């Protein structure tokens, strides 16, 4: 059975609430879960038996939030070979910023560039539309999990 690693990027906790809310759905689908807050590349397995689900907000002007800055630097500096690693990104942001969800979209690009396999387009959640952002993530997760059946064994 594959493990889904939830990599949290947050400053004020909203992305962590999303990750926490998704755990029961993921486990119900037969995967084990591991929340990483903050994520650290050295502690993360990257092969086909592991799936990464990055849940990150955006801060500053399109910047990574505090808890994931170091991880993003590790990826950029160490350039790990992530070939074959399945992943998806949930990007949380506020559409009143020009740089809407830019940190999540940057992370999606970075993971693809390192060879990871995108299992879904990034889910962008706008807090203007979803004051309780978990609602959007909970609507999205069943269809994502359905696509992962090949990793369930
Ligand atoms: C100082 C500040 C800067 C922000 N900058 C952006 C931004 O550039 N783009 C965006 O989409 N959202 C931006 N946001 C909105 C946050 O991403 C949003 O509030 C999110 O819910 C925070 O989640 P977190 O608690 O997990 O960090 C910003 C929020 C703050 C307070």
Task: Describe it.
The chain is an alpha/beta fold and 153 residues long. It has a single domain (3-146), classed as Rossmann fold (3-Layer(aba) Sandwich). It is 35% helix and 22% strand. The chain contains 4 helices and 6 strands; from the N terminus they run βαββαβαββα. It has helices spanning 14-28, 66-78, 102-113, 134-146; strands at 3-9, 32-36, 50-57, 86-93, 117-118, 123-126. Strands 1, 2, 3, 4, 5 and 6 form a 6-stranded parallel beta sheet that branches. Helix 1 runs parallel beside helix 4. The model has no long low-confidence stretch (mean pLDDT 96). Bound molecules: flavin mononucleotide (FMN). Flavin mononucleotide binds at residues 10-15, 57-62, 65, 92-94, 97, 99-102, 127. Flavin mononucleotide (FMN) binds at residues 10-15, 57-62, 65, 92-94, 97, 99-102, 127.
Task: Provide a quick synopsis of the model.
With 153 residues, this protein is an alpha/beta fold. Helices cover 35% and strands 22% of the residues. Bound molecules: flavin mononucleotide.
List the helices and strands and how they pair.
Elements lengths: L2 E7 L4 H15 L3 E5 L13 E8 L8 H13 L7 E8 L8 H12 L3 E2 L4 E4 L7 H13 L7
Parallel strand pairs: 1-2, 1-3, 3-4, 4-5, 4-6
Helix pairs in contact: 1-4
